[in-house]
Amino acid sequence: MSAQNVGAVVVKDFGRLIGVLTERDMLRAMAARVHTSDARVRQWMTENPVTAPPDMTFDEASKIMLDKGFRHLPVVDGDTILGIVSLRRIMGGRRPRDK
Fold first, then answer.
1. ∠45-25-33 over CA atoms, to 5°?
2. What is the strand order of the sheet 8-13 is part of?
3. pLDDT tens digits, one per residue of 8-52
């Protein structure tokens, strides 16, 4: 996550989205003093995350994230994971690929 400068990653099991692991999840694990060799993603990830279709507007996506209290929203088209949109990028008005 650090190398790619992202705050969240999708977690898949046999190609199916099962969760999202965020910076906050990693901090919770560190605060619990879990050693990295013992930590398991499944234990700390957010399971069954809320998702967005690719045609959802930025306004709709930001409302969902603000209402539900999270900062990352996976974008899916059927069973295909297209990426994650972040509240920071939406509020900054930048498209996910812009830097």
1. 115
2. 8-13, 16-22, 46-47
3. 999 999 989 999 999 888 888 888 887 767 778 888 899 999 999
> What is the rounded CA–CA span in Å between residue 70 and residue 90?
13
For domain 8-92, which architecture applies?
Roll (3.10)
* Domain edges within the chain: 8-92
Report the phi/psi class of residue 25: left, alpha or beta, with left for phi > 0 and alpha for psi in -120 to 50: alpha
| CA 66 from centre of chain | 14
Task: In whole angstroms, give the CA distance from residue 71 to residue 86.
Answer: 6
Nearest residue to 53 (alpha-carbon basis) of 42, 44, 64, 43? 64
Distances (CA, A) of 56 to 16, 53, 72: 21, 6, 14
Coil, strand or helix at 83: strand
Q: What one-character DSSP code corresponds to residue 86?
A: E
